[in-house]
Design a protein that fits this description.
- By secondary structure, this protein is of the alpha+beta class.
């Protein structure tokens, strides 16, 4: 039995767990990571969105991934709203990657190990809360008894902490297989009456294939033979019929692809990240991006909980707000995108996914205000409020001056790295547009002052004093 006394224990070695462990180790914490499987492991999901790069670069891992021989996606063939194929050029997804997730995950985990994270793999973890933190028993390559101040649950949909989860999509199953097939380097997406299909090349003469449908369709139609069902669905398609007789290099696996979120994603000494926090519709191809994002945010939260336990309530509210923003934005996007497939209207799969979405925030204003002159008197619009908002500052959660406005999806603290709340708090009464630019140019470059002021004006956060004096 090995006894370890640490600051943080991370359960789960996927992208979220590995990146959070890496970041916490670089911040000086004693970190261990427990992963139940040996890498490389087979993993669903090979399409990574361009949004991964700012996240990886901010952690110092962008070069590691870019130097690996992962594929940039070629063109995309799409049969979605229309029955005829559409060709989307490769530059429409500049910066995206098609990766072998087993290799990608292993790279991030090795980076965490090199940063000083104590990795135990394979290891089954049992976690228990104690008055002093967490007691974790790990059984695998040896037995470990681990004491930790904080626990990071990165164990995926099943979670190591359990707890209630709420579905925000109809139940969805993904059938996943690898095919030995010649291909044209295209990514394929096609809506069919029973669901939708996705395929992309991941190596020479190897294609990853996914079919998303309702669980009831599999129960009614497969007869227990998932490969037969998958071949039958491809036979009747525009883009996938050429794969219908291909050799399956791995047996068909079924995975839950329902969108869900945890109702208690954070506490005073724990946090859920990645799919333990929320799982999104695979159609968006942003699952890994959002997992990495939650890992970096989660690392800042844990760093704050350890260094400043008095900020526990602030951290809790901040992390819950971020979760709600991601989920609500995704619901709007998801419902709009599924509603585009009118050619299958009336089919159960599509009917269930065309429910009315939550109201879209009023972020698109119908008419831009007339540009101000240098002598125009400006003021803060009446419906805008100056607030103090929780945000990430130097890898900790802290409060900073911010603004809330009807034209914003979320409270605003930083705009391109500039603290907007501080600028607006310094807005003098009866200031002209020129006065404002001169004043702000004392803190930021004049060109940046121009850009920020113009953006705030177009968002109706700043307005002409004479027009809103009586509002």
């Amino acid at each position: 039995m090995h006894d370890l006394e640490l600051d943080v224990c991370v359960v789960g070695g996927g992208p979220a767990g590995a990146l959070a462990a890496f970041r916490l180790a670089t911040l000086g914490h004693r970190v261990c990571l427990l992963e139940r499987q040996v890498f490389p492991r087979p993993q669903v999901g090979e399409s990574l969105s361009p949004g991964i790069w700012p996240l990886l670069d901010s952690a110092g891992l962008g070069e590691l991934i870019s130097s690996t021989s992962f594929r940039a996606p070629g063109h995309t063939l799409l049969c979605w709203a229309e029955s005829e194929p559409q060709l989307l050029p490769s530059d429409s997804r500049a910066g995206a990657l098609l990766v072998d997730r087993g290799k990608f995950d292993a790279l991030l985990l090795e980076a965490a190990r090199q940063a000083g994270v104590y990795v135990v793999q394979p290891a089954q973890a049992r976690v228990t809360r104690t008055p002093k933190g967490w007691q974790i028993f790990a059984d695998g390559v040896g037995r470990f008894n681990i004491s930790a101040k904080a626990l990071v649950d990165a164990a995926g949909r099943k979670s190591c902490l359990g707890g209630r989860r709420v579905a925000f999509s109809p139940r969805t199953i993904a059938l996943w297989a690898h095919l030995d097939a010649n291909h044209d380097c295209a990514t394929r997406v096609e809506a069919i009456p029973e669901g939708w299909l996705w395929a992309a090349p991941i190596a020479d003469d190897k294609v990853s294939l996914l079919f998303f449908c309702d669980p009831s369709h599999i129960r009614r139609s497969s007869g227990g033979d998932l490969e037969r069902l998958l071949r039958e669905r491809m036979t009747k398609t525009v883009l996938f019929s050429g794969f219908a007789q291909a050799t399956f290099s791995r047996s068909v696996a079924a995975r839950d692809a329902t969108c869900t979120y945890a109702t208690e994603p954070i506490g005073a000494d724990y946090i859920m990240i990645g799919e333990a926090n929320y799982s999104l519709d695979p159609l968006s191809s942003t699952g890994v991006e959002k997992a990495l994002q939650s890992a970096l945010t989660g690392a800042a939260v844990v760093n704050t909980l350890i260094n400043h336990p008095e900020r526990s309530n602030l951290c809790t509210q901040f992390y819950r707000d971020r979760q709600h923003e991601v989920v609500n934005t995704h619901i709007v996007w998801m419902n709009q995108y599924y509603r585009e497939v009118q050619r299958h209207a009336g089919k159960p799969f599509w009917n269930l996914r065309c429910a009315s979405s939550i109201p879209r925030p009023n972020v698109l204003l119908s008419k831009r205000p007339k540009q101000p002159r240098l002598t125009t008197l400006v003021r803060l619009a009446p419906e805008v409020s100056l607030t103090r908002e929780a945000c990430v500052i130097d890898d900790e959660i802290a409060r900073r001056p911010g603004i809330r406005a009807p034209s914003l999806v979320r409270p605003l603290v930083f705009l391109n790295g500039i603290e907007v709340g501080l600028l607006l708090a310094d807005l003098a009464a009866n200031a002209t547009w020129q006065d404002l630019l001169v004043s702000w140019s004392r803190y930021i470059p004049p060109a940046s002052a121009q850009r920020v002021a113009k953006w705030l004006w177009e968002k109706r956060i700043l307005c002409e004093a004479s027009l809103c004096a009586d509002l």
